[in-house]
Amino acid sequence: MREIIALSLALAFVCLLSAFSLSFVYQHSKPLIERNREGELREAVEKVLPGAKVEYAPLTSGRVFEALNSSSNLIALYKGEKDGREVYAALISVKGYQGAIRMLIGFDPGASEILGVEILEHAETPGLGSRIEGESFLSQFKGKLKPKYDTITGATISSSAVIRGFVNAMRAVMGGER
Amino acid sequence: MKYMFSVFFVAAVLNNFVLTNFLGICPFLGVSRRKGPALAMSGAVLFVMVIASIFTWLIYHYLLQKYDLEFLMIPSFILVIGSLVQLIEIFMRRFAPRMYDVFGIYLPLITTNCAILGVTLININRAFNFHTALVYSLGAGAGFGLAMIIMAGIREHLEYVDLPRPLQDIPIALLVAGLLSMAFQGFAGTVALLK
Amino acid sequence: MRLQNFTKGLWTELPVLRVLLGFCPTLAVTNRAENGLVMGLATTFVLFFSCTLISIFKKLIPHRIRIPIFIVVIASFVTIVDYLLAAYYWEMHKVLGIYIPLIVVNCLILGRVEAFASKNPVGDSMLDALGMGVGFTLVLVVLGSIRELFGFGTIFSHQVIGKPYEPMVLMIIPPGALLSLGLLLGLMNLIRDRMEGRR
Fold first, then answer.
1. CA distance linking residue A176 with residue C167, whole number of Å
2. Domain ranges in chain B?
3. Residue C135 and residue C141: Cα distance in Å, rounded?
């Protein structure tokens, strides 16, 4: 019996030491990690809303929010201001070929204009489906809403998923255009 | 309900733990030489996976997260898994001796099975709720078993093939696993179609 | 402190290709040479510090609970590596994902600690750990380079094969990993057989 207690104490001691040192490392690295995570999002938002001043507190109400929330899998919506106009960046999730695709759409609802689209996260096939990240595919979304968008040969499902998500979201906010 | 089915399917087939995520590849290569042990190991793995998922999920959500102790996740999970395996072994020996005769020796090996730790970590990383985590671990275990059994069937036949010495045993097993993995890639996209 | 403790990890007892352990991370992160390098270094970090610490305190660790204690030590260093990567090398942390925590169950580390560090002097244990770690990293980099070369046409993100080359996507998805490792292992066996045959 005595042996078991002694052994348990020894193990507990080691665990305590471990917990102590880990908590130290955690405290130190936590702010850096938060900053990295946020930095990623900010970089993408800056790409889709170039030159805009953005508030990074996600919106939870308003016309734009309602429209997006009901039509798409909305993760977050950010409001910004560019050249005196109200602009938004919407982070939505769509179902791709291999998993969820996270895309960020920068748009100006007042002028019915798309300012940029970025793919943040995906699990699509490297070399094929991953081409949805490319400028040549994403640049077609800029400007006014078009009736038709081009898919990528060899990555039909991945690219149509992106297109579908994009069109659903933007039609809901800006109204259909044919 | 449909969602649960697709979660199970993804874990078992689409993102098969062994053939796509390479979790559990060590026991996979080590125990898949014969169908009998393969089946037994798979059973043990499935059993431990589900129970470990339950316990680690509860510990994370009601203990670690609550008291801001997320950084203790890795050590606590692995300790939980290790102790669970010990407990299961003791339990089995006492109350299900026949089961122990079949699964018994594989249990200690399971502690270092990356698949077990992998499932528990994924349950947390992907923020699954309790039911989803449960179904996911079931699927993962089933997938592991599926891969094991197919592999064992093939390797039993490989015994009769005249292979060059350098390729015997593990290298050829890896090559076969590669082909299996390729076959499983064919399932990609089916879940998207399920919706 | 015999240098042999270090060098054996580089050839005779080369992890993955000779000592058949540590396949899981090897297959998972070697689709790019850089990923393999970072994973190898992270594993070496954990291996080195765990072995050193345990070797220093080997006389104080009660034999009956040595495995749980080893595991707690290893798990702690893995957590440290995980957080350091997340703080200072975010991109890589995202890429390596859950495979960093899985270093804990890399049989290589527990194996070395149990078989060597817990029974040998500190200096030898440090060399042993370093040798194994460097060997492991080498294997990961070689495999990663091969897969990246055929799968992307690049090595360490430097374009090696030119434009007309249509990348072999197979190499960077799971089946490619298994096939590459199988062939590499077969090659290793062939080399070893030839060397032993000549002796």
1. 40
2. 16-186
3. 10
**Could A125 and B188 be called an inter-chain contact, meaning their C-beta atoms sit closer than 8 Å?**
yes
A70 found inside a domain: yes
User: Quick check: B185 and C79 CB within 8 A?
Assistant: no
From B159's Cα to the closest Cα of chain A, the distance in A is: 35
CB A114 within 8 A of CB A105: yes
Domain that holds residue A93: 48-174
Q: Across the 178 residues of chain A, what is the mean pLDDT of every consecutive 10-residue run? A: 81 88 90 86 87 84 84 86 88 79 88 88 73 86 87 83 89 67
A42 domain-assigned = no
Please state, in angstroms and rounded to a whole number, the distance separating the CA atoms of residues B108 and B86.
8
- A80, part of any domain: yes
Q: Which residues, at least 6 apart from A143, have a Cβ–Cβ distance to it below 8 Å? A: A113, A114
CB A145 within 8 A of CB A81: no
CA dist., res. C73 & res. B107, Å (int): 22
Nearest by CB: C169 against A36, A39, A127: A127
Nearest to C87 among A11, A32, A125 (CB): A32
Instruction: Determine which of B13, B22, B179 to mutate to test the interface with C (most C C-beta atoms within 10 Å).
Output: B22
Question: Which segments of chain C does DSSP mark as H helices, in order?
Answer: 4-7, 23-29, 33-56, 66-88, 90-96, 107-112, 122-152, 174-198
A87: part of which helix (H) or strand (E)?
A: strand A85-95
Other beta carbons within 10 Å of A143: 11
Q: Which residues fall within 8 angstroms of residue A83, CB to CB, at 6 or more apart?
A: A51
Name the minimum distance, in Å, from the CA of A100 to any CA of chain B. 10
Of the residues A7, A8, A16, A22, the best mutation for testing chain B's interface (the one with the most B CB atoms within 10 Å of its CB) is: A22
Three-state SS string over A52-79 comes to CEEECCCCCCCHHHHHHHHHCCEEEEEE
Q: Contact B22/C20, CB-based, under 8 Å?
A: no
In this prediction, residue A176 carries a pLDDT of 52
Tell me if chain B has a CB within 8 Å of the CB of C148.
no
pLDDT tens figures, B172-184: 999 999 999 999 8
Query: What pTM, to 2 d.p., does this model score?
Result: 0.80
Contact C189 B122 (CB under 8 A): no
Element (H, E) at B136: helix B130-158
Could you give the number of structural domains in chain A? 1
Q: Does residue A110 lie within any of the structural domains?
A: yes
Beta-carbon count within 10 A of C8 CB: 19
CA neighbours closer than 13 Å in the CB half-sphere of residue A98: 17
**Contact A31/C88 with Cβ under 8 angstroms?**
no
CB contact under 8 A, C24 and B22: yes
Q: B interface mutation test: which of C26, C69, C98 has the most B CBs within 10 A? A: C98
Tell me the C-alpha distance between A33 and C86, whole Å.
Answer: 6
- Chain A residues close to B195, C-beta within 8 Å: 95
Closest CA to C57 of C8, C101, C122, C10: C122
